[in-house]
Amino acid sequence: MIYHNYLPNTDESRQKMLDIIGVSSQEDLFKNIPVELQKNTSLVLPESHCELEIQNRILELAQKNIWPGGYVSFLGAGCYNRYIPSVIDNILSRVEFLTAYTPYQPEISQGTLQAIYEFQTMICNLTGMDVSNASMYDGATATAEAILMSCRITKKNKTIVSRALNPETQDVIKTYLSGPDIDIITAPINEDSITDINNLFELTANKDIASIVIQVPNFLGNIEEVRKIEQIAHNAGALFVVIIDPISVGMIKPPGAYGADIVTGDGQSLGNNMMYGGPAFGFMACRQKHMRNMPGRIVGSSLDSDGNTAYTLTLQTREQHIRRDKATSNICTNHSLCALAGSIYLSIIGPKGLKEIANICFQRAHFLASKISEIEGFKIPHDNFFNEFIMILPDNLSVDVFNKEMLDRKIIPGINLNSYYHELPGAILISVTEKNKPVDLYLFLSALRELVEEYVLN
Amino acid sequence: MSNLETPENIHCTRSHEYVIVDGETGIIGITQYATEQLGEIVYVELPEVGTTIPKGEAFGTVESVKAASEIYMPVSGTISEINHRLTSEPELINDDCYNEGWIIKVADFSKEDLEEAMPMDEYLSFIEE
User: ipTM surpassing 0.90, yes or no?
Assistant: First the structure.
């Protein structure tokens, strides 16, 4: 056998190992495994290649990818193409931060613990809440955990989830809550593509609801009637759970200002690359009175034996290594490195920068929407959106044809909403971020005008 | 730790709760042995007044620096009063579990359940085992 750099066992070393344990061959070693469970054909692998050949092959495959750098992208729907300051990668790559684990030992982990503590402070500032945990896996699982938390607090087992939540979040909630005995009621949306208030009112009549969960802005881009929903939730003795896009609070009031009890969200927008949809991190914050029911790690600030500020994990009696089956969750870690990217991002951008970014997204999205509505055949049904909005295609232009035509022009259009909402044929969700330059918006508009010439006027 | 004065009419459970009979009211807390096992108590989760809870079901939680434990009803009954001071002074349980460190009071509690609980001398030999 040929010697390989990355395959340490030669035929000779294998034989040596077999000799030591006293079996004659590999087949002999596996003879206790029933024959019907053994794979009797050998693996069909391509012949080996040198590193340079493999690099060339991978590059060839990578060039088939469509990526935002080579295209103009209007894809959003939960994963956003945003500006990432280059200093983030620089700090993240410091070996001291490269750990997959939340530190247990304060005596050797003050740097990481302080970074998490600062993260929690920033999440509290962003959401307007009192207590944040050290981060969660993603926005969807954070929301499912918030529902479990609401059931523990209210001792009820029904939750109302708006149909205007990201459909993937709705799916994760269903999966996550399939074990415990919790009923998920989906609240319908109205013709304004927001949660139907009247229906919500009826659904809560029996006061047996643990929580009402909404997303602001919702998946369809629109701002919900948060104050009315807050009243409905609290009048029914339910907790009010709000999922936010963290960038949007640069312009929209944080949920703490309108009575939310638990706030969750996905942190990808904060300094994390899109990375094919993940991993990034989720966040969760709540009111102080509910903190003992919160899942996940929490870092606290304390004093060491010399009286210096020191950071350490706190409120650990909620967690499974102490509380066993009564723990608030089986989550006993966080997405520290991705959350750190979020902390660095927020500290660089600052409150003023966040406002500027939110403002740019809002202005450009509304500019694009108003210009689209002037083009014959295209419709913009709503205007109470932040940076994502619904665009309805002309009747004789199908979504498939539209997507192909746009991709041919090096434009990645938004997602097809009809695949999630049957009542929205021809609806595309367009997302505009600070990465969409004014020239990109004009490119999009002129592409639409060309399609009108080709498919509508002829 | 020195032994606290044991009140009269006290009955204890195997899960280390006590009930002191005071006329028609039952005063419920955790025993001195339990407080010693738990260490410094930092938080107490209390139930709502008016709820009726059967014997053996959890009515709250005590959290110490070491652990968080459920507290179970020694007798079935309706909660008539809770010790609000524990919200800001949970250490009252460590300092004076049978007096100022009481946790809840129940009205109309089950006298039958009381017979199943142990008198103090029986409880003391139970924890010696």
Answer: no
